[in-house]
Amino acid sequence: MGFRLGNVDGRVVLVDDRDGWHDLGALADDDGLADANTALADPERLRTLAGGLDDRSADGVLADVTLGPPVPRPRQVFAIGLNYRSHAEESGMEVPPTPLTFTKFPGCLCGPTDDVELVTATVDYEVELVVVVGTGGRDLAAEDAWDHVAGITIGQDLSDRVLQFASAPPHFDLGKSRPGYGPIGPLVVSTDRVDDPDDLALTCSVNGEVRQDDRTSGLIVGVPDLLAYLSSILELFPGDLLFTGTPAGVGMTDGRFLSPGDVLESTIEGLGTLRNRCV
Question: Could you tell me the CATH superfamily of domain 77-277?
């Protein structure tokens, strides 16, 4: 039995197939599970608890709440640059020989419908599949890596391009970490709820105009190899996030940056949609 996990008022909830939400701490009679990192450390327990939701009255429905980021306080947030050949080509950059890895500081994370404050006139969009670590560990084998994943979600790697390229080498971390520049959600979805976690359609639109349209099978370095690579260098922890890269169509290539009033929609097959208004 798969699960969908969200954040209602700062507490972890499981979501049933009718979009009713259930407070996980109350459901499990263990208030420690109100913390996302703690809950995600045991995906099998989440699957077991999700299997009993049909026999329980929901605490509420998603339509009546504003979801927060499903993993609000990850210990580590990794992101991968130039991981779709189409994006490398439009950027005029060579595909790196090893995964181009940087961090988005956790303070940038926000919810799936939160407004995003544009601090400058050069803020760009990048829809990405985000992997949420479950059991974690060191030196994970690529063939076993998906077993260490709690679930997947949608992310926007919003980027202040002027800040990003204010120095050489670029400030990838700072340029992509202003407050609100990391919308994620709406839910963490276990991989057994999608047909193929290695091949999902993803799109990004601005005011209804599709700007990015690709599939995650286009990743140059796929999720298993990314997790194997990162875990060969450092330990991965429950709740860690991995932004896996973005395809072609970003605004920097033709100067179409985000403006106040723009509505940014990011969709991944089987995972839902982020809808963030720019202010």
Answer: Fumarylacetoacetase-like, C-terminal domain (3.90.850.10)
